Amino acid sequence: MSNVAAPATEGPDRADHPLHVAIIMDGNGRWAAARGLPRAEGHRRGVEALRKVVRAASELGILYLTIFSFSAENWSRPATEIGDLFGLLRRFIRNDLATLHRDGVRVRVIGEREGLEPDICALLKEAEDLTRDNNRLNLVVAFNYGSRQEIAHAAQRLAREVADGKRDPSSIDADTLGQYLDAPDIPDPDLIIRTSGEQRLSNFLMWQAAYSELVFVPVHWPDFDKAALEGAIAEYARRERRFGGLAAKTGS
Ligand code: IPE
Ligand code: IPE
Ligand code: MG
Question: Is there a contact between 48 and 4 (Cβ–Cβ < 8 Å)?
Fold first, then answer.
C-alpha cells in the first residue's frame, strides 16, 4: 500500500468508483450500550455486519477491502474484552474461511504478529495460505495493527540494511519506505470510511491515507450495511481528487 493509485477510467475501475475501500469499524460498544446489552454483544453483531459488507463489497466490484479489526492500542482495554475480540476472530476464521475461499476472496493480514497467541497466528496463516490464489476481492485484515508501529518497523528494516552496508541512506525516499510497509503491493485506499461518527484515524493507515477521501458515517458499525456502503461510495463519487494538481474544471 505504498503508491497513490492512478485514477482509473472505466468499468469497475472508473474514476468515481473506489478500487480500495478501508473501513474503521467503530461503535460496537455504543451500539450495545444504547440497547442495554453487553459490549461483547455489540462486537458479535459487528462480525455479522462484517460478513454482509464483505459480500456487498464484492458485489459492488471493490477489489480491495481493508478492515480495522484490532488496533495496537486496543490492548489497553480490559482483558475480558480483548478475550471476546480474539474469540470472535477465531470463530470468524473457523466459520467463514471456507465460504470466503469459495467466493474468491483472498485474505491478507497486516499488523504485528509477534506476541500473538500461536493458535491465532496459525489461523491467520491458514487463511492467507488457503486463499492465496483468489482474486475476486482482497480482504485485508488489520489486526494488532498500528500505523506508527508499521512505519517504525519499516524504518528499522531499512536502518539494518544501512548498518549492514547494503544500502546508501540517500537511496531512501518515500517510495522506498513504502516498499517496506506490511503490504507494499496493495494500492493506497481511495476511500476510508469510519462509522460511529468519530472523525479521526486512530493510527490507521496514516502513510497510505495521504490522498484517501475520508467519509465519516454517523451509524454504529453493527448497523452498517450494503446501503450504507453504497452511500459512502456515492459521497466518494462527488469528491474531486486532485493529488496536489489543479481541479479538472480549471484544467491541469
Ligand atoms: C469497534 O467498536 C471495535 C474495536 C475497536 C475492536 P468499539 O469497541 O470501539 O466501540 P465503541 O467505540 O466503544 O462504541
Ligand atoms: C479504532 O477504534 C480501532 C478499531 C476500529 C479496531 P477505537 O475505538 O479503538 O478508536 P478510538 O480509541 O476511539 O480512537
Ligand atoms: Mg471505538
Answer: no
